[in-house]
User: Which sequence fits this backbone?
């Protein structure tokens, strides 16, 4: 008997991120990151509601972005179908979108119910992430130069040809200084470290390693994507002040523990999709054309290890409900 392949939800997830990306892209360069985020949230939530899943938002907008919808614990989907944890970031890079800067993407990930790590109110993590070639060779506790040397060896590069992507924040100055002292190159970004981490898996991106402190919700989403393609992320909760340290102690969060992909997403059934909003190292952005738009997306599936890139042409004259959502 030939076994019928199970339904691949990754294609349906791409519909979710495509719509969110197009809605956000309408606000590109207009200086209003809240409006861009709200447009993406509205679009993502609408399409999510049509999916035949029993989904619960495990990683949402709530703690970090204070958004009114797609908050942690919210039910999404029709309620008919399998139970999933859902991680969303309608726009990873709202500031980039508002400023018209490359690097913003819309992302979503699914994993079996109960498998996604919840950082609660601890919204930042110290991170190191690499693609499949360098997986198993990094160590968050090791000196930065050692990690750079390991990745350079794995990728067949000289150390001075290696490129690290780092969020441009004062808290990451130590990383910036040490990478420069080691002689490697740096790509500083103002936002969007999910795209930055996933770019390490794409040979054409020119990005070899992600380093530094960024969002903890984004770390879980990144782990979902990297788990699909054999990459690696290690991270450690990063408390900003005594109040967060007290919160961590009260909620059994070990600030000294290094978390692996399995700690962040403990499932072999993981799906991921992303669509470019403003373009960048990872995905091209939304292109608006006469009566429509062109989007560029990626879909990943851990079970099969498959990665699919998709370019789609959307005709707003035929997709009336979609065009009303995006163009209003």
Assistant:
């Amino acid at each position: 008997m030939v076994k019928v392949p199970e339904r691949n939800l990754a294609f349906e997830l791409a519909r979710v991120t495509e719509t969110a990306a197009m809605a956000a892209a309408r606000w590109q360069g207009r200086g209003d990151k809240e409006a861009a985020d709200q447009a993406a949230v509205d679009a993502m939530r609408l399409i999510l509601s049509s999916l035949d899943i029993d989904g619960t938002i495990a990683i949402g907008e709530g703690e970090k972005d204070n958004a009114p919808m797609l908050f942690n614990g919210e039910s999404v989907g029709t309620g008919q179908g399998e139970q999933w944890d859902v991680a969303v970031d309608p726009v990873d890079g709202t500031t980039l979108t508002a400023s018209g800067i490359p690097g913003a993407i819309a992302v979503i990930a699914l994993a079996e119910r109960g498998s996604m790590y919840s950082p609660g109110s601890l919204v930042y993590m110290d991170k190191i992430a690499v693609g499949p070639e360098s997986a198993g060779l990094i160590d968050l506790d090791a000196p930065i130069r050692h990690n750079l040397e390991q990745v350079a060896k794995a990728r067949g590069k000289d150390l001075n040809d290696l490129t690290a992507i780092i969020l441009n924040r004062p808290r990451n100055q130590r990383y910036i200084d040490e990478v420069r002292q080691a002689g490697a190159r740096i790509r500083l970004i103002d936002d969007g470290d999910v795209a930055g981490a996933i770019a390490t898996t794409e040979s054409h991106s020119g990005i070899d390693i992600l380093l530094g402190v960024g969002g903890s919700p984004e770390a879980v989403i990144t782990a979902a994507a990297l788990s699909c393609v054999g990459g690696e992320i290690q991270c450690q909760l990063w408390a900003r002040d005594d109040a967060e340290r007290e919160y961590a102690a009260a909620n059994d969060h070990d600030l000294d523990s290094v978390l692996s992909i399995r700690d962040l997403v403990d499932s072999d059934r993981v799906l991921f999709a992303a669509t470019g909003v403003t373009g960048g190292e990872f995905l091209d952005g939304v292109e608006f054309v006469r009566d429509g738009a062109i989007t560029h997306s990626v879909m990943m599936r851990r079970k099969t290890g498959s990665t699919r890139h998709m370019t789609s042409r959307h005709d707003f004259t035929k997709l009336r409900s979609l065009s009303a959502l995006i163009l209003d």
The chain is about 30% helix and 25% strand.
